[in-house]
Amino acid sequence: FVKYKCMTRIKRKDMDKHLEEKETKHLGLKLTVMEDLITKQSEKIDEQSVEIIKQSEKINKQSEKINEQSVEITKQSEKINEQSEEITKLHENNIRHLELKLTTMEDLTTKQSEKIDE
C-alpha cells in the first residue's frame, strides 16, 4: 500500500510537471502569436505613417503653389488698381480739357454774337 501511495505521488508530480510544461508551451505559443500580431500592426502603422508623411508633403506643395498664386494675384490686382487710377486721372483731364474747350467756344460764340449785334 505504501509503495502504491509513493508511486501515485510520483505519478502526480510527473503529471503536474507535464501539465505545467504543456501550459508553459501553450503560453509561449500565445505570446509568440501576440508578438507576431503586434509586429504586423507596427508594420501597418509604419506604412500608414509613411503614407501620411507623403500626403502631408503633397499638401505642403499644394499650399506653396496656392501661396505663390495668391502673391501673383495680389501683384496683378495692384497693377489693375494702378491702371484704374491712371485711367481715372486721364478721364478727369479729358473732362477738364473738354470743359475748357466748351467755355472757350461759348466765349467765342458770345463775342461773335455781340459783334453781330453791333
Structural commentary:
It is a single chain. By secondary structure, the chain is mostly helical. 98% of the residues lie in helices and 0% in strands. It has one helix and no strands. The chain has one helix at 2-117. The longest helix has 116 residues, at 2-117. The termini are far apart. The relative contact order is 0.03. The mean pLDDT is 89.
Count of separate DSSP helical elements? 1
Structural class by sheet pairing and helices: mainly alpha
Mass-distribution shape: rod-shaped
Distance between the termini: 169 Å
Order of helices and strands: H
Overall pLDDT metric: 89
Largest sheet: none
> Approximately how much beta-strand content do the residues carry?
under 5%
Which spans have pLDDT < 50 for at least 5 consecutive residues?
A: none
**Total number of strands:** 0
Rg measurement, Å: 50 Å
Helical content stands at: over 70%
Topology:
Blueprint: H1 2-117
